[in-house]
Amino acid sequence: MIKFPVTSLRNTIFFRLLITYVLVIFPIILLGFYLYYWSYNNASEDISRATVTQLNYYLEDLNREIEWMELQQHDLLEDNELNKLGVTWELMSSVEQRESLTYLLHRLTSFKNSSSYIQDIKIHIDAIGKTISAQNAVVDLDRQHYEKLSSSMSKYRERLTYLNSSLHLIAAKYGGKKGQAPLYIIQINLDSNKLSDSLQQISLYDNSGAFLFSDTTGFRVMNHEYAKPIMQSYLMQTKEARNSTSLLNNSGTMYHIDSVYSPKLKLTIVTYLPEETVKRPLHFFYQWAWLFALACLIAIIVVTYFTYRFIHKPLLLLVQSFRRMEEGELDIPIDHDNRDEFGFLYTRFNQMLVKLKMLIDQDYKQKMMMQRSELKQLQSQINPHFLYNSFFILNSLAKVSDVDRIEQFTVMLGEYFRFITRNGDDLVTLHEETKHSRVYTEIQQLRFSRRLHVQFDELPEACASIKVPRLIIQPIIENAYEHSLEKKSENGLLVVSFDKQEQGITIMIEDNGEHLSNEKLEELQQSLEKVNEMREMTGMINIHRRLQLTFGEGSGLKLERSVMGGLKVTICIHLNENDQG
Fold first, then answer.
1. CB burial class (10 A; 0-12, 13-18, 19+) of residue 422?
2. Residue 575 class from Cβ within 10 Å (0-12 exposed, 13-18 middle, 19+ buried)?
3. Rounded to an integer, what distance in angstroms lies between the CA atom of residue 159 and that of residue 171?
4. Is residue 46 part of a domain?
5. pLDDT of residue 129
6. Could you tell me if 430 and 445 are in contact, meaning their C-beta atoms sit under 8 angstroms apart?
7. According to its UniProt record, where is this protein mainly located (predicted)?
8. Residue 5, by phi and psi: left (phi above 0), alpha (psi -120 to 50) or beta?
9. Other C-beta atoms lying within 10 Å of the C-beta of residue 242
């Protein structure tokens, strides 16, 4: 039968803890108030971050919509039928005139229906004295309005023009003579009601709202009429459009204000939220803060007593021993004569120290190394620079409407990301690893096709099913592009070749870069020869160590100067009978 020891209260640590915990109560109360204000500030910041992100998305979407309208407007400006009406109206037959007017009217109607932000599209043609409207068909030209549009274009040259309480996109076609009035003007009227409705979508809280305005044109639009006094107060206190988060006092009510300015549109969008709405979820916390402090005082007194009597002292000894073990001190066992549960733990702890010393070299270090390598591998799988370049290539292909190459590129990009993001074992077949590396070089060829060339040999069929760690070839190829080939203005060459041997395979990656000095090459060679197992490993050192851990001594990387002048990296894989096939 186990007898529990009786702990004497002669030790004064109990009283020290009691006094300490009582003194802790006051900071806890202060902490409660601090947490209240911290929670309020944090909630405000979270709301601001979310709101600013939403406002940026809104302005970006609106800008993309305007850009699309401008592209369609420019395309319409160069329309052959429209040019014929503006230049050769008198020479056209009545049938040709009607056909051209009908064609343009259908095109304007289709254009208008393509965007909910468009209220009407008008083409004012001076030569025929007519205005073609998607909403009103063909009407007589309003000469005064035409001259006002022409004057506003030459005066302001703004991307968005504010006329008649709404925004417009205006573009004109001029003749060959300097100073001559435009042949015709294309006017796109933006629907203020639709803009107001779109602002309603970003007002997610009670009594919140949004408004959109321009400092340069005087344009104003809001999602509700009751937002008008708040907008007026904001405009009186804000001297210029800017990105900001602030508090606004309007008729004694404080509002949380977030604003984002778009330099492309020269528009500012502002959202407001009553400060009381931000504080409302925290009222409950404030009321219970004092009760929490009182409960803490009672609980601390009780727990202090029993913790000290039954747990604190023996547990402290065990914790200190564990800390020494964490610091690497494995030769200091716990001396004790306890026969209770802690005595059992002390005995097992001493036995664990002995076993740990035996296993640490053969198991612990290796596992930690594999975990560190795996972590660095996952962290470096998606290169932001590569991802940016990929989208840049897609953008370039889309601009020239090269559908076939877009399809080819997206398939290759999908294969690339599928390989590096899939879950599963760290080992893959050499065929899969080589295929992934080939896809990567093909993607890079789309970027550097004019100045770089890749010679990628075929993998010997007998080596296709060999299991290797993932990402041992592609990072080396990526390193060659980043540090050597990207710096060449022409005639860059990357060669990937394979050599099947009796006891393994070697993979050679070499380039003709011109910036590899002898000192740099020697530094790289020494970094592979003197690997410190406890330091962070990246790049080629990571690959070299993973190959050694997987295939043993004789495997890894070998660095030397290529016959082409650049760096040659040789991947050596030494196989035993279990690794074959």
1. exposed
2. buried
3. 10
4. no
5. 86
6. no
7. membrane
8. beta
9. 10
Q: What are phi and psi of 336, to 5 degrees?
A: -160, 165
CATH number where 141 lies:
3.30.450
CB 153 within 8 A of CB 172: yes
State the residue range of the domain holding 160. Answer: 78-190
Determine the Cα–Cα distance for residues 259 and 202; give it in Å rounded to an integer.
Answer: 13
Contact 464, 430 (CB under 8 A): yes
Report the amino acid identity of residue 369. Answer: M
Residues 6+ apart with CB under 8 A from 492: 448, 451, 452, 453, 485, 511, 512, 513
Q: Rounded to an integer, what distance in angstroms lies between the CA atom of residue 68 and that of residue 61? A: 11
Q: Six-digit token pair at 159? A: 């991307």
Instruction: Please report whether residue 21 resides in a domain.
Output: no
Question: Is residue 570 domain-shared with residue 478, that is, in the same domain?
Answer: yes
Class of residue 286 by CB neighbours under 10 A (exposed 0-12, middle 13-18, buried 19+): middle
Burial 383-409 (b: 16+ CB within 10 A, else e): eeebeeebeebbeebeeeeeeeebeeb
Does residue 29 lie within any of the structural domains? no
As beta bridge partners, residue 572 has 506, 556
pTM more than 0.90: no
Distances (CA, A) of 144 to 139, 140, 147, 303, 375: 14, 12, 5, 88, 71
- Structure tokens that stand for 258 in this block: 């977030």
218 φψ region: left (φ > 0), alpha (ψ -120 to 50), beta (else): left
103-156 pLDDT, tens digit each: 888 988 988 888 888 889 989 888 888 888 888 888 888 888 888 888 777 665
Q: Which two tokens stand for residue 383?
A: 């290169």
Same domain, 388 and 517: yes
What band does 411 get if pLDDT is binned at 50, 70 and 90? Answer: confident
Class of residue 207 by CB neighbours under 10 A (exposed 0-12, middle 13-18, buried 19+): middle
Residues with Cβ within 8 Å of residue 181, at least 6 apart in sequence: 126, 150
Mean pLDDT of 207-236: 83
Please name the residue that has the structure tokens 């309603």: 200
- Rounded to an integer, the average pLDDT of 322-332 is 77
- Closest residue by Cα to residue 123 from 67, 84, 165: 84
Note whether 118 and 109 are within 8 A (CB).
no
In the numeric block, the tokens 């406002």 are attached to: 55
User: Token pair 């330091």 is at which residue?
Assistant: 535
Q: Are the C-beta atoms of residues 184 and 131 closer than 8 Å to each other?
A: no
What is the length of the chain? 581
Do 307 and 366 lie in one domain? The reply is yes
Number of domains in the chain: 4
Task: Label each residue of 157-168 as H, E or C.
Answer: CCCCEEECCEEE
Burial of 28 (0-12, 13-18, 19+ CB in 10 A): middle
Q: Which residue shows structure tokens 């069929």?
A: 461
423: DSSP letter: -
| DSSP per-residue letters across 241-253 | ---EEEEEEETTE
309 is written with which tokens?
């009597």
Same domain, 434 and 536: yes
Of 460, 459, 466, 504, whose CA–CA distance to 581 is shortest?
Answer: 466
